[in-house]
Amino acid sequence: MGAPVTVGVVALDPVLEAGTRTTLLACPDLTVCEPADARVAVLTVDRPGPAELDMVRATRALRHSPAVVLVAGALASGDALHALAAGARGLLPRRDADAPRLAHAVLAASRDDCTLPPRLLEQLLDRPADARHGAGGWSDGMLSDRERSVLRLLADGHETAEIAQRLAYSPRTVTTVVHDITQRFRLRNRAHAVAYALRAGLL
Length: 203
Known about the structure:
Order of helices and strands: EHEEHEHEHHHHHH
InterPro entries: Sig_transdc_resp-reg_C-effctor, Tscrpt_reg_LuxR_C
Keywords: DNA-binding, Transcription, Transcription regulation
GO molecular function: DNA binding
Number of domains: 2
Protein name: DNA-binding NarL/FixJ family response regulator
Domain HTH luxR-type: 136-201
Strand order of the largest sheet: 2-1-3-4-5
Number of helices: 9
Shape: elongated
CATH superfamily of the largest domain: Response regulator
CATH class of the largest domain: Alpha Beta
Strand content: 5-15%
Distance between the termini: 42 Å
Structural class: alpha/beta
Largest sheet: 5 strands, parallel
């Protein structure tokens, strides 16, 4: 049997952090340490909104690039897409995050495997490919046909003027579409938008 996997805990709420830490301490295959020194980080949140997804990205950017397991009080299929695109390697509803399940998710993440609850996986697989961005907020944020067309051409290396010509839009419209995507999903630039869409299965 190998050495225990090092795991850190990240949470915006100190009560959630303490509870998660206590659960992990009950797992003999894990050693709890600081997130910056951990092989896997467990992020415990109420729901994965923009601030929480920024935490996933920031944790992945730590010196050792720990794998991230996200434990959330509420997890809709749209939330799962965003969490996976942000870099999470495992997702667990908080109600299911007992010691055995949490340990399983952490150990899987340490091997670069991805774990999802079966119910959530079914929802993701059943989600229509042409889902649209609706008024329901962050978890409903998919791409329109126009946004998808622009991102596909960006992914192929085309500049704004070329995209406008191919799609019969003005260059300003193309710029606005890209800006809207980066703002909605809190992305840094065009390249990040393309990478995000590909990782989330939106293209």
